Amino acid sequence: MLQAINEQGKCIIPAIMSANEIKQFKKTFEMFFCPVCKEQVRLRLGTKRIPHFSHISRADCPNHVGGEGIDHEQGKLQLFNWLKKQGYVVDLEVYLKPIKQRADLLMNYGSRMVAIEYQCAKITTQEIIKRTKGYQSVGITPIWILGSSQMNRQGKAILKLTSTLQHYLHQYPSNDFARLLFYCPHTHNIAFFDLVSFVTSYRALGEFCFLKLSQLQFSHLFKQGVIDPIPNQWLIEKKKFRLSSPKIGYSSEQAFYQWLYLNQLHPSQLSSWVGLPVSGQWLIKGSVWEWQARLCYDFFNKQVNFTDQELAHFAKPYFQSSRDYPLILKDVNPIRTYLNYFIMSDLITCNGNYYKLTKQIGRYKCVEQSLYNDQRLHIKLKRDMRSQM
Ligand SMILES: [Zn+2]
């Protein structure tokens, strides 16, 4: 922990004090106490870590958070200083008794209270949800900033996101895309990742942006620039899928390839309408290729005329059973987003609650034909989206 109470009851943060001031503590044998459990704590000075305190005897104090390490302390302090510099009223390591949680940073932002969690250690999905909801239950907006060691980048626009990490995605009602934040205390870089769509269950395609903390205002964490909803990188991913062969051992994938086989289909033959980027893919089981293929061939083609309810009923088994994403504050519906592509192109017409497919969704004879058409549809949808904006 970075702060403690001295004998006069004053809050002390040695990490932001001068070497001389700290020397004084040693001379006067000043004693320090934990702000939460009031037990005595020890001031720790060393060359490797920034000055901090640790409990002498108790490890069961809620203010004692184990396993976070040096990066966590450094990053937390840097974020604290960054907010202070911008004139915010911000407190470090605040224990919130009613919810029994300790926020790394707690600040006032307009009329809101915001808790910042700088999370370097891996925690479980249940823990993320519990802590997020804990803050929300007392009217505090939580913001999670992940340690850069949790960023598993797999290409210019690709991030590997396990189902646990997906629960850190933030989406405010004013944002079109869900976002993850990372901070590295060594480079002082904040990384934004704005998610466009998942390609497979864990492969996320989006836009990265790296900025020095000093160039950034706190309010930027909520703001989103113009992001291409159909990035060109998507076509590369689509081509990869078309040319891929089934991976043995993934049971959900095997079931999909079996379905393709039974329908005398191969990834290279699927219509270009299968596999379009959508927001909210995290709510769905399996990849975009799978549910969109089934929707096209098993529902749109067979049903032709359908209602919202019928579509929702068909899509239901494809949704995750648990849809607990308390940081997603926008109402996202990937099926609806997908349907909109068809409506935009008049392939499906819409009359109130009634929909009609105007032309059967076909298949291609060879991979050259499909790659060519993927590209054409990509350009067309991009143009249509732009004209709608
Ligand atoms: Zn304590």
In short, what is this structure?
This protein is α+β, with helices and mostly antiparallel strands.
Descriptive overview:
This protein has 389 residues and is of the alpha+beta class. The chain folds into 3 domains: 1-64, no CATH class; 67-221, Trna Endonuclease, Chain: A, domain 1, CATH 3.40.1350.10; 233-388, no CATH class. Helix content is 31%, strand content 23%. It is built from 9 helices and 16 strands. It has helices at residues 19-28, 69-85, 125-137, 233-243, 251-262, 288-303, 308-315, 334-344, 367-388; strands spanning 4-6, 11-12, 32-33, 40-44, 52-55, 90-96, 101-109, 112-119, 140-147, 158-160, 178-184, 189-198, 203-212, 305-307, 348-351, 354-357. The strands form 3 sheets. Strands 6-7-8-9-11-12-13-10 form an 8-stranded mixed β-sheet, sandwiched between helices. It has a 5-stranded antiparallel β-sheet with strand order 2-1-3-4-5, with no helix packed on it. It has a 3-stranded antiparallel β-sheet with strand order 14-16-15. A hairpin with a 4-residue loop joins strand 1 (4-6) and strand 2 (11-12). Helix 4 (233-243) runs antiparallel to helix 9 (367-388). The chain is elongated. The chain starts with a strand and ends with a helix. The model has no long low-confidence stretch (mean pLDDT 92). Zinc ion binds at residues 34, 36-37, 39, 55, 61, 63-64.
